[in-house]
């Protein structure tokens, strides 16, 4: 298959290599760049006052860990949670065990038994410079004291959507690997209106029911939900569909 990879450059390279190992011919076009977040310097004062750390993405973990290495700090011995498998794997890579729900969404995380009785607990949420506030609002309603730390920031490169779409069509693009609602919206904004029917007919692999609902609402008709946003989960979903 000829899938489109839109993850930030470092992850896109890893995912493309994995796809090639499985016989696919990926096209890479990072739609998003990630950079260190402006709130990273607050970590030294936040970590000693925290009982629970929640990561909403692998980027949040990686940028935080890089900052800790630079400053000589280590992850404290407290409770860790991750929204999806990619975030869990990122924690695991730095020696931290995090609990992850089978439902890789904020709703799935909030349903975990250990996060029910959090009254008086101090919770730190590692994330990008924006995003959903469901986790913070819900935990605060349960009595937790919640703080955010934007460990990374998103930036969008300037791209020629018309030229890219024509290139993808000429290359025989037949599938899309989209790992977030944000990337889905970015792709939709990039592809010109007259080319949308072609786009909607591509096989779309997404990481969660929430993103699948967004895609269905936009007009996509062939949607596969992977077991999370990790590179392995995306490739496994594509391989499963290839064998059908």
Q: What spatial form do the alpha-carbon principal axes imply? A: elongated
Strand order of the largest sheet: 2-1-9-10-11
Per DSSP E runs of 2 or more residues, the count of β-strands stands at: 11
Terminal-residue CA separation = 13 Å
Instruction: Note the beta-strand portion.
Output: 15-25%
Average pLDDT rating: 92
Summary?
InterPro entries: 4pyrrol_syn_uPrphyn_synt_sf (IPR036108), 4pyrrol_synth_uPrphyn_synth (IPR003754), UROS/Hem4 (IPR039793). Helices cover 41% and strands 18% of the residues.
Question: What can you tell me about this protein's structure?
Answer:
This protein is an alpha/beta fold and 244 residues long. The protein contains 11 helices and 11 strands. The strands form 3 sheets. Strands 2-1-9-10-11 form a 5-stranded parallel sheet, with helices on both faces. Strand 10 (203-206), helix 10 (209-218) and strand 11 (223-225) form a beta-alpha-beta unit. Helix 3 (58-71) runs parallel beside helix 4 (85-93). The longest helix has 14 residues, at 58-71. The protein is elongated and about 55 Å long.
């Amino acid at each position: 298959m000829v899938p489109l990879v839109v993850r930030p450059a470092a992850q896109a390279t890893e995912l493309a290599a994995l796809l090639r190992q499985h016989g696919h011919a990926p096209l890479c076009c990072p739609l998003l760049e990630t950079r260190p977040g402006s709130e990273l310097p607050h970590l030294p004062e936040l970590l000693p006052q925290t009982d629970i750390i929640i990561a909403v993405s692998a980027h949040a973990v990686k940028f935080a860990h890089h900052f800790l290495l630079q400053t000589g700090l280590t992850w404290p011995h407290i409770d860790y949670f991750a929204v999806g498998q990619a975030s869990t794997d990122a924690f695991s890579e730095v020696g931290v065990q995090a609990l992850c729900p089978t439902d890789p969404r904020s709703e799935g995380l909030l349903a975990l038994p250990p996060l029910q009785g959090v009254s008086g607990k101090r919770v730190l949420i590692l994330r990008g410079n924006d995003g959903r506030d469901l986790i913070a609002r819900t935990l605060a309603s349960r009595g937790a004291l919640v703080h955010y730390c934007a460990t990374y920031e998103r930036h969008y490169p300037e791209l020629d959507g018309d030229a890219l779409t024509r290139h993808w069509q000429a290359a025989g693009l037949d599938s899309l690997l989209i790992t977030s609602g944000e990337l889905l919206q970015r792709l939709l904004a990039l592809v010109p209106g007259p080319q949308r029917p072609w786009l909607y007919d591509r096989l779309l692999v997404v990481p969660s029911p929430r993103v699948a609902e967004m895609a269905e609402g936009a007009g996509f008709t062939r949607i596969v939900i992977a077991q999370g946003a990790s590179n392995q989960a995306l490739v496994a979903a594509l391989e499963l569909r290839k064998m059908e």
